[in-house]
Structures are given as structure tokens and as C-alpha cells.
Amino acid sequence: RFLLPALFSCLSECTSTKATAAKRAHESGIASYCLAALASKSPATRNYAFGCLDLIGTYAKSSEAQEDPQFRGRKAFCLLIDGVRGGAAAKRGGFEDGVVPQFPCLAARVASAVCEALQDPNHPGYAASHQYVLRRSKLRPWQDAPLLKEALRMPDTCKVPSFVAFTPSEKLQKKTRRWAMALLIEGCRDDESGRLLRDAHALPLLMAHYDALRTGGYDPVEGKLTFLGEVPPGAKRLLDEPAYKLRRAVKDVRQASNDALKLLDALLTTKPARRSLFHQNGLTSWARIHLSHQKFDDEGKNYEWCARLIKWMAILYDSQVKHERVLEDAPLFFVDLDRGVRGMMDCLCDADLARVGYERPKFRAERKAPLDTLGILDGSVEDPNKRMSASERLRMEARDVWSEDELEYPEVPAKRDLDGVEASIKRGRAEAKRRKELQAQDRSDTESTASDASENNDAKVECFARADELLLVDYFCQHARPPSTDGTAAGLLLNKIEPKDAYFYVFGMDGSEKVSGFDDAVLALYLTQRMRVHPVPDIGDVLLKDTDWSQSPVLKGIYDSMRHDATTEAAKAADLALDNQDLRAVVVFIVETLVLNEAVARSCLGRRALVAACRFLSSYAQTVDGRVWRFTEQAQRVAKLRAATGPGCGRFGVSRSGDASKYGSLVEARLAGDQNGSRRGAAFVCDELLAAALSDFTCAEWPDDGAVLD
Question: CB neighbours of 691 closer than 8 A, spacing ≥ 6?
């Protein structure tokens, strides 16, 4: 409000010193500041900034400025100002009511940085800035995404480059790429910038570039590059290079990958990019696949990468479910949501390892000990491969990247030549020790899978915090699911969690140790909606077995076709008994957490926890096990709690604590309405659900239904 009007006033009075005014405005950063101000939401700010640029451009093209040899980059600077002015004038509907149109943040940020880079020939973006201003006489801020070629090294077509195309070999090109990528990350702050990158096909290429970069890995122990498939053509030349060049390439790849992920983070803050990433580019499926390829916890799981992927999934699901046409544009939205959440839980709990029951074999075969060549030659040490058959050797070479044939063994020398062999081996060991010391000095450039224990624990805690946020997003998304009576795919295709999987998520394999770091209240809230409970046997099945309806030839044929032998029936009965046992344990966990836990009752999830638990118990009461649960000590505690606290177990009509921020910004916005109170009659709805779960009591020591449930 003060700086731009003051600048405009000062520039208006510099009619006698036009060259000096334009030069100082360019060198001091005033022109860059005015270019950045074109993205302001204030019309007055944009008008003053455009007025300053108009004066600066006029002064820079004056005869005095043309004769000034100290005005470096004047021609390119004039082209930039003219391009910005021409682009604003070419905007359809621009300058309506005398107001300068608002530029996209991306275009304004790039124009400001280009103006700064034109001053110094040693600037990493000097050449790219000249190409930018010479590309067109009039810039198109609302049509072109600037510096994509320099930032992503992408051609005009949607072709994924080779391994090293994203990491240029020249030092200046690397700096230029990082400079351009930083501008894209900083400039992607509004929906218009996200639309520019979406229309330029940058979203799928970012995902493809990341996958192309991470296909291979550098092994610091062997000092070699390893790949999961065929070696990319661009990386073949690196296989014969020294180790320091490999470390440099790995560092460049890591920087490029991190920049691509940061740009995706920035894009997810814009509405057009979120919609495109979900509907057109399939970021949720891409993230789920990357989660499924994560290592197990004992092998070094990358919790920081998992937290980023889970955060992206939560943002996309939360933003798209609010759209009024979500089920028209994505009929299988809830199927994808279910697969994404289950994939996340299986990844963090190592469910695949638990279900399979054995440890996954490692990619590289482990060696027992280094070969002692002198000992083998002397005969004091037995050759470990001496007793290996030809088939065993082939299997070992198929498992191991480096076969034993690649190890060069010297020919067996005579006894008098052993001194020379020993001396050469000692020299080799000394050289290897020297190389190891040199590599230790450059250890910061290596890609190490091991990290500091405290940092790993912090990343794990953050990862499970994002997982809790995704579980709560799934809980809120289920409220938008249409009923199954509508006959739509969204209402019918619902994969319930089996009791054994729910037991594993809560208690682990044998119940002795909890395998996950999920919040108990969030996990219980999720299981109330998604866990499968066994229904009461169908009355038709009873009639088919015990009444005269079984005499019908048609019904009897159907019944006989469904029968199995005694062994199969016994196995099914044993599995069902185990499922019922797991289900009872999970039900106890849900009730203890959501109903009887005082900390949860006072939290921001207190009301929703009680409603979800009552709804779950009313459904569970219709099963055989649910009827048995009514006579347990836990059910008695629930009834006494209701009698002591009143309608709704005392959770309605009082303010909730505002601790929703620990579950993330998405959940905090969802729970903001809960701080103002609940809907009228919510407590009595919970009482009605409790009545369905606690009815038919026969114990004399329990209070009667009228006193307990009003």
C-alpha cells in the first residue's frame, strides 16, 4: 500500500534521468518486485505495479539508455517488459474497468526471477532467461507453463527420457535445472498455476520421471550400479566409471527425485491439479503400488516416503469426495478408497509377511566370509565352492548379481613363488584400505539406507500420524456413500475387513504385541464401519433343513449341491470358530476404546466415537455372538455407565476439547462443526441403538431397561 505508490511517484519524476532510473530499477530489484506484484489479488497493487513497469520499460528504450554502455542486458530486459505488457493486453477481457488482470503466480514468479538473472552472465539461469524472452514477442502467461524444458528436461512430446537425461553432466546445466525447478515449486501457489502445469502434461511426466530415476540403485559396498531389469541406455557408460562418478550420479538422481516430489507437493495445493491427478493420472493407484513395494520394517522401511504417499492419498480422497459429481466421474471411487486404505495398513503393519508366514528372500545372496585366497592356495582353508555341484553353482549365480566366475583366482604357483603372491596381496589390501579411507571422507554423497535412530523414529511417528488422518478421511467419506438399495456400484461394491485381519491390525499375530502405531480411537472408529460381522443364520436355511420344504425336489437339489464332506465341514467349522474368537476380541477392544475410555470421551472424537460404537453394537447384536455379548461383564459396564451419566452417556450437550489438530488439517476442518455442539436428539438416537444392543437382559442384578435407557 505504500511502497508501490511511492515507487510510481518517484519514477514519474525521473524524466530528466531516464537511463539512470531504468538502470537502477533493474539492478536494485524494483523491476523484479513489480513483476512479482502482478500476481497480487489486490487490483490497486496490480495497477501500481503495471504502471511502474510501463515507466521502466519506456525509460529503458529511450535514447539515453541505448547510449549507456553500463546498462547490461538492456535489450533482453526491454523484451521481457514488452512481452509482459503485450501478454496482459492480449488477455481476453483484460483491463476491464481499468484494472490489470491478475497474473498466475507461476508466470509472475518466473518473470521476476528471469529479470534478476538477466543482470549477471554468471547466473545459472542466464542462458535460459534469454531463451525465455526471445521465444515470443508477447508472453502468454495464461497459456504457457514457463521453464518446463529447463526444469524437467522434457521434450515437446510425452516421452520419458533416459536415466541420465534428468541429471545433465555439466555443472552449469545442473544448476540451471535446479534453479528452474525451484521457480516452479515456489510459483505453484494458485489454481491458475496448477491449470498451466496440468495443460502442459507435467503431472504424468513427473510421476514417470520419478519411476524412471528410481529403477536402479547404487550399492556402496560393491561400488557398482544395480538395476531391477535391463540397464537403461543412458546408464551403461556409468558402469565402467570410477566410484566417485557413480556417487555423483546418485546424488544428482536423488536431488532430481526430491525436486519432482516437492513440485507434486505444491501441485496438490491447487484444485485443477488435484482433480487431474485423481481422475486422469491415477496418483492414488500409483501411491498404493509404491506402498506395496516397500521393504519390511526389519529391512529398513522408508517411513518418510510412506508418510508422503499417505498424505497425498488423504488429500485427494478428501478433496474429491466433496465434489457433487464424484460418483458420476468416478463410479468406483469407494472401491479405490478401500484399496488405498487397505494397502496403506498392510504396508505399515507388514501384513504380507505375517500372512505368508515366512521371510521374503533377499535380492542379493549373503556371503558367509571373504575368501582367503592364500589359505586356499596353501590348503589350510577349504574352498567353500569345492563341494558345490554344477546345479548348485548355477542356482547361486542366478541368485547373486556377482557370480564366482567374476572373481579372478591366480593360477596355482610353485612354492617358491608364494612370497611374491603374498606381497602382491598385501599391496592390494593396502590399496583397498586407502580407497576405503578416501570413500569415508565423501560419505555424505553416498545413498545410505541406514539413518539415525531418532530421525527414523520421528519419521515413523509422522507416518502413522498421516495414516490416522487417512483413516479418518475414510470414515468421513463413508458418509457420502449411497445406500446399497440404490443398486449403484458405489453402494454395492464394499469389501468388508475380515475378523482375522482386524485382529491382526489391533493385536498382532498372536495378540502378544501390537504391530502398528495407529491411534486406538481412530483404528476402532475405522473398524466399526469396515469390519465384517457374521449374520444370524438365514431362516430359509433352517426351514430347508428342518421342515417339509426339504422334500421339494428343487430345494433338495440346491441343498445337496451345497453340502460338503465331513472333513471340509470340520475345517470350515474350525475356521469359523477362530474367526468368532478374533471377532470377540476386536469387539471388546472397540467397546473399551470408544465407550468406556474416559480420555476418548473427552476428546474431539467423543461424540462420533459413541455414535459409531452404538451403531456397530446394534448390528453386532443381531448375530449369534452379539446375543452372547449381552451377558458379558463388559456389557454390564456399558449399561451402568449409561445409568450413571444419562442420555447419550453424557457426551452430548457439553463442549469438546479442541485437540483435532493432532489428526491433521483435513480432519481438523471436518471436526470444526463438532465444537459447536451436536444435533438435537442425537443422544436419544444413541440410546435407541444401545437399547437394540442391550435388550433381552435376564440378569437380576442389572437395572431394568426403563431405568437404563429411559
Answer: 705, 709
